[in-house]
# Entry
Amino acid sequence: MTTALEVLPHDAQQHEPSATALRWARTAAHSPTPEVAGDLGWDLDLIGAVPVEASDLVRIAAAAYLADRRTPRPTTFARTFELAVHTVNPEPWNSAPGELTEELLHWLTGDVWHLRAVPATVTARTRAPLVPADDVMLLSGGLDSLCGAADHLQDGTERIYLSHYDGSTAVRSAQNMASSWLQGRVSSPLRHHSIKIRPNGTPAESTSRSRSLLFAALATATAATASSPQVTVPENGFTSINPPLATARGGALTTRSTHPGTFSRLNALLAATAIPVTIGNPYLHCTKGELLEQAHNCAGDTLLAAAAATVSCGKLDGGRYKGGNANLNCGLCVACFVRRGSFTVGPRHDPTVYLVDHLAGPSRELLLKRRRRDVLDVQQAYLNGIDEIDILAVGNLPPEADIDAIVDLCQRGIQELSRVPLP
# Structure
C-alpha cells in the first residue's frame, strides 16, 4: 500500500488533490496546524536568511520526517511513500539530487520513497542574518554530544550548537542541561539554537529513522546561513557502525543514523545541490568509553555530574511502569548497555540513576521481562564477537573506510560491553 502525502505551507493550495495534505505554519508567528507542531515555520524564519538550496533541503527532510512518524509500519516492515513537497526551487529535487534523497531515505528507513518537489508561493520577508561561525555542532542531549562539545570547548572555534527536539521532556531537559553546563565553562554567551518540529498529536510510528536527515538538514541550513563550512556530529564509532549484536538483525533493521555510509550519502547530496557544507564525525574510531575518557581529560570531574543527566536510552519508557520515571535511562536496552560500558574505561564511577535501579517489585520484574531480548543480544555479542561480515551486514562502507580499523573498534566496544554486569 502506498501512502501519498503533500507537505505545504498552511496558506498554500495543494498540487496533488488526491494526497493527504500536511499543512505547516508558514512562519513561527503563525499558530501550529492540526498536522504539524513546533516553533519552526515553513519559511525557516527561526534560522534566518537561509540560502534557497539549504532551505529546500530542510523542507524535504521535514516532510519525510512527518510522513515517517505519522505512518505506522506494517508487519512486513517496509512502507511506500509518494511525497509531494512545496519548495522554492523544485528543479534540482526533481532530478539527480532528488534521486540521491530518495536513496538516502531508503538507506535510513528501509522504505521506498518517491519524491516530487512542487513550486511554492513565496512571501517576501526580511530575515535577520546569522553572525558567521566556523562550525555547527549537534547537541542532541546524549552523552556523546556532551563529550564532543566538552572536547572541543577550548579549541578557539566560533561555534553554533544546534538541538532538535520533538515531544520528549527527557530529551529537551538533557539538551538544556548540556547547554547550561557548557555555558558555565565559557566566558562569552553560548550560541545554542534549539528547534522543535514534530507531527501534531501522538505519532502513529514509534521509531524515527528519518530524524537523522532532518537533524543534519537543520544543521546544514544553520551552517550555510552562518557561512560555516562544516557540521560536526559527535558520535562514538561503535554506535555509528552499530554492528548487529544478534544474527537476526542487520540492514535497515539496524539504525544507520550516523553510519559512515550515511555521512557519505549526505555529503554527496550536499555537493550535488552546491551547498558549501560538509558533515563529519571526528570520533568514528573511538568507542564510547574512549570518547568519554578524552572529554574527561579535557573537562575534569564536573563532566561526570553533567553526564548523569544526558539521555542515551533507546526506549525511554519509564513512565509506563508503576513508580517509574519517564526521564530516566532504563539501563537495560542495548544503548544503555553501551553507555554503562563507557564508564568502565578508566577509574570512573557511573553517576547515572537508571530505571532498573529505581524500580522495585513487580515493576522491576516487568522491565526485566521487556528487556529480555536486549540482554540476550548483548550476551550473544559477548559469545560470538564482531567480525567483518557482521559490520558489512549493516550496510556497505564508503570506499575510503578502513575495515580493519573498524573491526578493531567494534571489538574494543564489545570489550566495554563485557564489563557490564547482566541481570
In short: The mean pLDDT is 94. The chain has 15 helices and ten strands. The two ends are 42 Å apart (CA to CA).
